[in-house]
Design brief:
7% of the residues lie in helices and 53% in strands. By secondary structure, it is mainly beta. The two termini are 14 Å apart.
């Protein structure tokens, strides 16, 4: 499935916030499941039972939040308050952004 996701700018950095509205459950990202993030040419989120990160549980719904220097470096930062739509591909256990 192809879609666009939003990358936000706040407090001098970038934030990627994915929820059930983005369809992450349908590709295997349930609350409490684990995943890894790879910052290559594209940002790739891969489901992995031994992953470094965990899908959050917000009122029983999954949330993936990626914040920090690596994502800011990947998407660059220009100003706070900027919201950028970025193409994304959702496949079983893999979300590719960029």
């Amino acid at each position: 499935m192809k879609s666009n996701v939003k990358v936000y700018s706040q407090r001098g950095g970038r934030v990627l916030w994915l929820t059930h509205k983005d369809g992450i459950e349908s590709v295997g990202f349930e609350p409490g499941s684990r995943f890894n993030v790879d910052y290559g040419d594209k940002l790739v989120i891969t489901a992995d039972v031994g992953g470094d990160r965990k899908v959050s549980n917000k009122s029983g719904k999954p949330v993936i939040a990626i914040v920090g220097k690596k994502i800011t470096g990947h998407f660059t930062w220009e100003e706070d308050g900027k919201i950028e739509e970025v193409p994304a591909t959702f496949k079983d256990g893999v979300i590719t952004i960029g």
